[in-house]
């Protein structure tokens, strides 16, 4: 019998594992995908090796890459980009750590208070969240992003838009700024040389500007795992969870098992109350099933897999909201082509942003050739110059929206991929019951019936559609201001990278799965701690900081409610995840 | 008005490319090999099945050459046929067709339970869509034997490589767009299309109200039917995106074992990406915007 079993070692699960391991609880962390304990041996810098969604080391599938990836159904032209493996989808993320906009929390009184998704706010206030933001920001640590050429160009464009520069953590109004990101600032030779002899830890510390965030951060070369520049959870929270005894008095290291696919959450009826009692997982390698009991079970499998596990476990869904209310920031993609060097794709993929509450935001994203080509051809508006698929909007960009592909794409990149700047359009999108995860009618895989992710993207709420158009226009304005010769709008089909709120926390029993503590309404001792627990799409900010802050709060609630402990976030200061004690212990463990 | 079964069947096989690939001008099977007499006596046609298998593989490759050059044209014959060429290397030089075949046949975790009925639909489907095909009469008459071999193969429990139904789908659409594509240079109708016609074929696949499943005449029970119909729309987009990804990726020159490149990838040459190969870092750090290295509330 464990104290706590955490299902999934992605963005959220390791937070709960680390916080509760620090308090001395016996924590088992189960991860469906690979461990990736030796990145320098297992990874590379190649897109085909890393990012091929079928065979890459960053995919949704078991460790053995000769086996197929796990198949998921989406009944529209879309792509749900989730990763399995320790670190989950943070393995290939960009570490952008903005806070959620205050307007998405209960009690917000700003002048624009009615302009947000008012039906689906967080059930507590922004000020209650702030200590948790601060805790995660200090622990990661979250810092102001260093600037490369592509950021400089982004700011040049933003400077023409009549907006202020944001110099606070909290976003109060439309503004632009360098990202606050979970990337260690460059130190020593990092960012100053291309000579690989010089880019070795500790001569180089922090981000070396290699540009391979999407292929996994394992730099600077020679650094201990917890001092790699990018603070994906495999480099931050997981190392802390596994070494809790050395940095926390009374801490007990969590046990991590990879290639362990949880297929069932078990419950029992205790005095008429349905209560979680443990899990069954399947070993991807041997196919063996294991069962283990726990006092508390935490679901952290992400927005698509949590509902699946819920359905496959036969858990009750009285208000029908399990899997509903999925938000994805209804992204769009704009490409600017320039006469001069832009610095794309060097450095952290995305170090500059523009926030525009209550509409959404923009950020630059630098991509290498194949991902750039993929991003330019994922569209709901057909092929530019050929067909529009019923859309093909025109506006302050050049020509109709649509795929830039074939000869046009070839010509676009012929000037050099470093003469492009690409901007991600982020929409403040509404929670809608119709966007959801359901069990698929397609054949099950070895872990049971598979999830189906439905996005009715053409029929989203008026506010969502308006916000997307608004932000797309702002993106064009920014690119023109930066001096783009040509601006292309792709009109992305749903590319689902920012996932939120499919098991949402809410104040109303009618449209939420979790109560305000993070516990499920239908099953006691069962908690959800990852992006799916978020109440809404946060107004557009990248979700991981808010998700981890919420998971920290949920860990406190678990400790208080079921283990008789005291909360700590308001009374203690966090140990920083780069702490040398962690590095030393990782070395002893061969990690 | 339904055509007599034999004619409509013949039209269908021509449309998905099988008839032309096997028997048309430049077809892969010498007609004598499919002797109608032996077909009549042996319903399973084992030797002919062995002959049909490589035909289907060649047909799939040809169709996918048509797709990858659509994604990234180059100096090759397929690009010339589509009338969108380029002097610099394209998809074929990048190995993108192999990328697609390897992905479809080995890695797309598409359940057999679905691939099988879709492939079977391509066998039994009549697709009497009312499109009249010119030049059917120049295709040879050994339909029955070919059809039996084809049917035997697809109804056996041999796993069907996914590249085959994908090619069938593209070819079916190709002949919808341009019925004359049943004959001509290349093995497959899709590869015979112009660039604009290929785009038109994708338009049909992507169209939200098109019901490809109906066109294929597949009989899936609900709710599977809705799933398959949605899936085909996803497949339409994914084929373009994935072919483009493959064409610009290191696939053709990557040694997976040693994690090294045999040559500079086409995609890197075309885009000028990292001229000296992979790096540990770049000297691109300028400083902090407005000199601000830290913010607080
Ligand atoms: C390209 C890209 C860039 C991004 N950039 C940013 C960014 O800059 N900033 C930001 O804030 N966010 C970013 N995101 C989003 C970020 O990755 C997510 O917010 C974060 O990973 C979500 O954490 P999660 O725990 O909810 O899910 P995940 O990270 O997906 O983790 C879920 C984990 O659970 C495992 N799992 C699932 N089911 C089971 C099961 N049944 N049994 C065992 N294990 C299971 C999975 O294998 C996975 O490892 C980006 C995403 C993408 C795709
Ligand atoms: S650019 Fe920086 S953060 Fe990204 S992978 Fe390279 S060193 Fe890591």
What does this entry look like structurally?
- Chain B: InterPro entries: TAT_signal, TAT_signal_bac_arc.
- The complex is a heterodimer of chains A (591) and B (297).
- Chain A has 591 residues and is α/β, with parallel strands linked by helices.
- In chain A, 22% of the residues lie in helices and 17% in strands.
- Chain A has two domains: 1-69 and 83-142 and 230-327 and 502-591, FAD/NAD(P)-binding domain; 145-181 and 328-498, Cholesterol Oxidase, domain 2 (2-Layer Sandwich), CATH 3.30.410.
- In chain A, the strands form six sheets. In chain A, strands 1, 2, 9, 10, 11, 12 and 21 form a seven-stranded mixed sheet that branches.
- Chain B is mostly helical and 297 residues long.
- Chain B has one domain.
- Chain B has 14 helices and two strands, in the order αααααααααααααββα.
- Chain B has a two-stranded antiparallel sheet with strand order 1-2.
- In chain B, 51% of the residues are buried.
- The model of chain B has no long low-confidence stretch (mean pLDDT 81).
- Chains A and B meet through helix 3, strand 4, helix 5, helix 9 and helix 10 of A and helix 7, helix 11, helix 13 and helix 14 of B.
- Flavin-adenine dinucleotide binds at residues 7-13, 30-33, 81-82, 84-85, 88-90, 92-96, 261-262, 300-302, 305, 309, 497-498, 530-531, 542-544, 547 of chain A.
- Residues 183, 207-213, 217, 219, 229-230, 347-348 of chain A line the site of iron/sulfur cluster.
């Amino acid at each position: 019998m464990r104290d706590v079993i955490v299902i999934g070692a992605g963005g959220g699960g390791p937070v709960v594992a680390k916080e509760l391991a620090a308090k001395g609880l016996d924590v088992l962390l189960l991860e469906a995908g690979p461990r990736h304990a030796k990145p320098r041996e297992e990874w590379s810098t190649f897109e085909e090796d890393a990012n091929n969604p079928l065979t890459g080391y960053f995919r949704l599938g078991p460790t053995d890459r000769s086996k197929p990836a796990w198949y998921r159904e989406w009944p529209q032209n879309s792509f749900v980009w989730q990763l399995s493996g320790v670190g989950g989808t943070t393995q290939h993320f960009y570490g952008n750590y903005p806070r959620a906009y205050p307007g998405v929390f209960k009690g917000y009184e700003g002048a624009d208070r009615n302009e947000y998704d008012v039906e689906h706010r967080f059930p507590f206030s922004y000020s209650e969240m702030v200590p948790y933001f601060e805790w995660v920001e200090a622990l990661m640590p979250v810092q102001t992003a260093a600037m490369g050429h592509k950021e400089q160009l982004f700011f040049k464009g933003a400077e023409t838009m009549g907006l202020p520069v944001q110099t606070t953590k909290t976003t109060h109004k439309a503004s632009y700024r360098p990202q606050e990101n979970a990337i260690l600032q460059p130190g020593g030779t990092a960012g100053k040389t291309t000579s690989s002899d010089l880019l070795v830890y500790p001569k180089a510390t922090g981000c070396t500007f290699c540009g391979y965030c999407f292929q996994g951060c394992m730099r600077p070369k020679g650094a201990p795992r917890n001092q790699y520049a990018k603070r994906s959870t495999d480099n931050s929270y997981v190392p802390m969870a596994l070494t809790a005894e050395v940095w926390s008095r009374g801490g007990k290291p969590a046990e991590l098992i990879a290639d362990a696919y949880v297929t069932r959450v078990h419950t029992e009826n205790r005095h008429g109350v349905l209560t979680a009692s443990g899990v069954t997982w399947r070993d991807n390698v041997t196919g063996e099933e294991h069962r283990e009991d726990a006092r508390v079970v935490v679901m952290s499998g992400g927005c698509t897999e949590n509902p699946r596990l819920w359905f496959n476990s036969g858990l009750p869904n009285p208000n029908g909201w399990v899997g509903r209310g999925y938000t994805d920031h209804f992204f769009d993609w704009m490409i600017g082509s320039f006469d001069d060097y832009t610095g794309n794709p060097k450095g952290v993929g995305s170090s500059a942003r523009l926030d525009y509450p209550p509409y959404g935001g923009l950020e630059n994203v630098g991509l290498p050739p194949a991902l750039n080509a993929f991003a330019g051809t994922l569209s709901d508006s057909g092929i530019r110059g050929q067909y529009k698929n019923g859309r093909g909007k025109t506006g302050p960009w050049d020509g109709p929206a649509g795929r830039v592909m074939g000869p046009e794409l070839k010509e676009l990149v012929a000037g050099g991929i470093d003469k492009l700047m690409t901007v991600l359009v982020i929409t403040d999108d509404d929670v809608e019951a119709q966007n959801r995860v359901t069990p698929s009618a397609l054949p099950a895989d070895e872990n049971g019936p598979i999830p189906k992710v439905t996005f009715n993207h053409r029929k989203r709420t008026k506010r969502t559609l308006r916000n997307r158009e608004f932000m797309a226009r702002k993106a064009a304005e920014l690119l023109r201001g930066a001096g783009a010769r040509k601006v292309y709008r792709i009109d992305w089909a749903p590319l689902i990278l920012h996932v939120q709120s499919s098991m949402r926390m809410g104040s109303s029993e009618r449209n939420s799965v979790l109560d305000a503590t993070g516990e499920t309404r239908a099953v006691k001792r069962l908690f959800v701690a990852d992006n799916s627990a978020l109440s809404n799409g946060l107004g557009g900010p990248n979700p991981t900081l808010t998700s981890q802050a919420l998971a920290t709060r949920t860990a406190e609630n678990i400790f208080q409610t079921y283990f008789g402990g005291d909360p700590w976030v308001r009374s203690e200061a966090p140990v920083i995840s780069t702490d040398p004690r962690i590095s030393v212990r990782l070395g002893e463990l061969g990690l | 008005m339904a055509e007599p079964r034999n004619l409509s069947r013949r039209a269908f096989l021509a449309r998905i490319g099988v008839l032309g690939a096997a028997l048309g001008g430049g077809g892969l099977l010498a007609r004598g090999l499919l002797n109608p007499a032996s077909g009549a006596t042996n319903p399973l046609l084992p030797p002919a099945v062995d002959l049909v298998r490589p035909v289907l593989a060649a047909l799939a490759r040809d169709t996918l050459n048509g797709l990858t050059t659509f994604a990234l044209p180059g100096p090759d014959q397929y690009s010339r046929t589509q009338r969108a060429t380029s002097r610099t290397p394209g998809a074929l030089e990048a190995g993108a067709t192999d990328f697609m075949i390897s992905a479809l046949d080995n890695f797309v975790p598409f359940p057999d339970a679905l691939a099988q009925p879709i492939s079977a639909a391509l066998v039994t489907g009549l697709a009497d869509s009312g499109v009249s095909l010119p030049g059917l009469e120049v295709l040879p008459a050994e339909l029955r034997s070919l059809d039996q071999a084809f049917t035997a193969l697809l109804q056996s429990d041999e796993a069907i490589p996914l590249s085959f139904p994908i090619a069938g789908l593209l070819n079916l659409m190709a002949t919808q767009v341009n019925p004359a594509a049943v004959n001509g240079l290349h093995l497959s109708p899709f590869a015979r299309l112009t660039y604009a016609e290929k785009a038109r074929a994708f338009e049909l696949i992507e169209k939200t109200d098109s019901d490809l499943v109906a066109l294929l005449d597949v009989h899936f029970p609900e709710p599977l039917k809705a799933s398959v119909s949605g899936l085909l729309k996803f497949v339409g987009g994914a084929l373009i995106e994935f072919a483009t990804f493959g064409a610009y990726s290191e696939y053709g020159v990557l040694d997976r074992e040693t994690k090294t490149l045999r040559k500079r990838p086409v995609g890197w040459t075309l885009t000028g990406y990292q001229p000296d190969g992979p790096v540990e870092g770049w000297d691109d750090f300028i400083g902090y915007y407005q000199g601000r290295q830290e913010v607080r509330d």
